[in-house]
TrEMBL record:
Stretches assigned to the Stress-response A/B barrel domain: 297-388
PANTHER family to which the protein is assigned, alphabetical: D-TAGATOSE-1,6-BISPHOSPHATE ALDOLASE (PTHR30304), D-TAGATOSE-1,6-BISPHOSPHATE ALDOLASE SUBUNIT GATY-RELATED (PTHR30304:SF0)
Domain of life assignment: Bacteria
Protein name: Ketose-bisphosphate aldolase
Length: 393
């Protein structure tokens, strides 16, 4: 397993008064370091990939490695799109393996933020995927990723937060109460009373972005007032950078492998420190018992064709691969032909769904209905379809 439903994971944290770290990963050193810390401290963890970081890595390749790390781990793991900016990016993230998505339209006005967030919620919930929205604005300061969040703090208000959650249906809300993205100069002045009031009004897990620079007491006070998810990025990047600089200083002329050999350990040390401060260490077993496993479904179709040539059948199948593969929640569409000519069924389709919830949304999706009625059913002969819940790695 143990990829688990992110909504279940954060519900457990919220109900039991601790926070799960959502650690932004930008390469294998980060994935390995974060997972080593989670497994060593027996903590649930969220591996987070930020849309704003995609210029630094191939998102599809890193998602494959991140998902593999989560599936082989003995601790509960969720995979999250951080700071997604559009419906299209959320659809793609789910297709590539994310089981939680954030839509960040916090720079837009309230009505636009609401509309864009609601569109993502409707799509993602049909795929069984929870959504984090953001209300208020968390700016950046000069430093790691700070330039990507210009402007000044716009604090979340209780009234707007309540209306936003009710009208969008988000599962978690990122709030602005005084934190900043990037490196912090001085001590953050956090509005804990505002956070308390928001938590009392909403009753859902809250998220904090801009956690770098906060002290242990501030983190504990945030958690006591409803924060169940803490995003963490800059401090990990700083730990990695410091490890590289230390190696370069101690070994002038060192090659790449020597320079980065301490990066994963440095990231792991900082990650484990956070897990212990935030109260998630030692929670893995109880979280696993509380959470539903996140497992894909294989939609199998076997059939023959009548009334068309092999070439026409190939064209129909190619059209189906393109149309069905674009439906939200569909992770892959693979087709094949029987190896033996005498096989009872000549053609097969394997359509992988992100989660069981996709079965219904896929069946009623206009693109599926159109392809099935116009291209597939008129020529399919003796077709059989079965949905299988997949088990194992």
């Amino acid at each position: 397993m143990p990829l688990v439903h992110m909504k279940d994971m954060l519900a457990h944290a919220y109900e039991h008064g601790y926070a799960v770290g959502a650690f932004d990963v930008v390469g294998l050193d980060f994935v390995e370091g974060v997972m080593a810390a989670a497994e060593r401290s027996r903590a649930p963890v969220i591996l987070s990939l930020a849309e704003s970081h995609r210029e630094y890595y191939d998102f599809e390749l890193l998602m494959s490695a991140t998902e593999a790390a989560g599936r082989r781990s003995p601790v509960p793991v969720a995979l999250h799109l951080d700071h997604g900016t559009s419906l299209e990016s959320a659809v793609r993230a789910i297709r590539l393996g994310c089981n939680g998505v954030m839509v960040d339209a916090s720079q837009a006005d309230f009505s636009d933020n609401l509309a864009r967030t609601k569109a993502v919620v409707e799509m993602a919930h049909a795929c069984g995927v929870p959504v984090e929205g953001e209300l208020g604005y968390v700016p950046g300061v000069p430093g790691e990723n700070g330039e990507r969040h210009p402007g000044t703090n716009v604090y979340t208000t209780v009234a707007e937060a309540k209306g936003f959650v009710e009208r969008t249906g988000v599962d978690f809300l990122a709030v602005s109460i005084g934190t900043v993205h990037g490196r912090l100069k001085g001590k953050a002045k956090l509005d804990f009373q505002r956070l308390r009031s928001i938590n009392q009004a909403l009753g859902i897990p809250l998220a904090i972005h801009g956690g770098a620079g906060l002290d242990d007491d501030q983190f504990r006070r945030l958690i006591a007032k409803g924060v169940a998810k803490i995003n963490y990025d800059t401090a990990l990047a700083d730990a990695a950078g410091a490890a590289i600089r230390a190696r370069a200083k101690s070994a002038p002329g060192a090659g790449y492998m020597d320079l980065v050999q301490d990066v994963s350990a440095a990231i792991s040390t900082e990650t484990e420190r956070c897990m212990r401060v935030w109260g998630s260490a030692g929670r893995a077993a109880e979280v696993l018992s509380h959470c539903r496993p996140w497992a894909p479904v294989e939609h199998l179709i076997i059939h023959n064709v009548v009334g068309i040539s092999e070439k026409e059948a190939a064209a129909m199948i190619a059209e189906g691969q393109q149309a069905l593969g674009a439906i939200p929640g569909v992770r892959a569409v693979v087709t094949g032909r029987a190896v033996e000519e005498r096989a009872q069924y000549r053609y097969c389709w394997l359509v992988r769904f992100a989660a069981p919830e996709v079965i219904d949304s896929y069946r009623g999706h206009p693109d599926h209905v159109a392809f099935a009625n116009r291209r597939f059913r008129p020529v399919a002969d003796r077709d059989i379809s079965i949905d299988y819940a997949l088990e194992g790695p």
